[in-house]
Amino acid sequence: MRRHLLSAADLDLGDATLILDTAEQIDTALAGREVKKLPTLRGRTVVNLFFEDSTRTRISFELAAKRLSADVINFAAKGSSVSKGESLKDTALTLEAMGADAIVCRHSASGAPHRLAEWVQGSVINAGDGTHEHPTQALLDAYTIRRRLGRLDAVRVTIVGDVLHSRVARSNVVLLDTLGAQVTLVAPPTLLPVGVESWPAEVSYDLDAVLPKADVVMMLRVQQERMNASYFPSVREYSRRYGLDARRMATLPDEAIVMHPGPMNRGMEIAAEVADSVRSTIVEQVSNGLSVRMAVLYLLLGGAHMPDGAVA
């Protein structure tokens, strides 16, 4: 693997499969332990550098590092004065001087983790940058699909909703294509990015036409906080055309699953009865995120593969 994980495009089939397999090994190793902790990163320091709020992702990375016995520093750096440019560089160099072996960076500006990687000697992991990418979310989604369906190759994944503002969608399209899945994007034209036709995915505007052929339906949160214009007539109209309710869920194939990266707008993009159904993997995604982030940290800081006994 490379020194950093900045984009899903950084991972070829071998790298992505290695991460998923390592996460599975970690799950197996921890399953029978009363104390769910491994010594593999003892003496290493991981910094969570979050310029943007995200309780779920920050806690997941913090717990992942601690379960690998690393020292963890949480650096909450939100605020416009340190949002980009020299301030980011100065912060990076300060953390470097403190001996950070890995920096997990979340930033509102697309490309910020890439700049960070130019300035530090340690590994940088992109925990979400603007509307650009969120590679570990894509990895945990792929891991969840593989655990539920037993495969990724030729799995038909439908990603629905606010693709325009979704770093999750961008990372998932790239990674799932690498892993052999077939991706279809479903959204109103106003919520699709310019140039989407060049992505390795099909595009549809008709959710009802796509659902009967889907093995996986991934609903995206409508990111109204990123919208400075009207992208659809009303919440009610959006939900009517692009929301997943019990009626639509009933048209899915028998083994199909429903995913959501969270946090959810219940009653908007996904109905409560769907989110809480047996088809839903939403809680599993959170749990699997811990194993996948442990695998990423281990492989970036510990070695190219999981040696015998490392997770015994």
Description:
This protein is α/β, with parallel strands linked by helices and 312 residues long. The protein has 2 domains: 8-133 and 286-301, 3-Layer(aba) Sandwich (Rossmann fold); 135-282, Aspartate/ornithine carbamoyltransferase (Rossmann fold). The protein is 38% helix and 14% strand. The protein has 11 helices and 9 strands. It has helices at residues 13-31, 55-67, 86-97, 112-119, 135-149, 167-178, 207-210, 235-242, 246-249, 272-275, 282-301; strands at residues 45-50, 71-76, 102-107, 123-129, 156-160, 182-186, 202-204, 216-219, 257-259. Helix 3 (86-97) crosses helix 4. The protein starts with 12 loop residues before the first helix and ends in an 11-residue tail after the last helix. Residues 304-312 have low confidence and may be disordered.
Identify the notable features of this structure and list them briefly.
single chain, 312 residues, alpha/beta, Rossmann fold, 5-stranded parallel beta sheet, 4-stranded parallel beta sheet, 11 helices, disordered C terminus
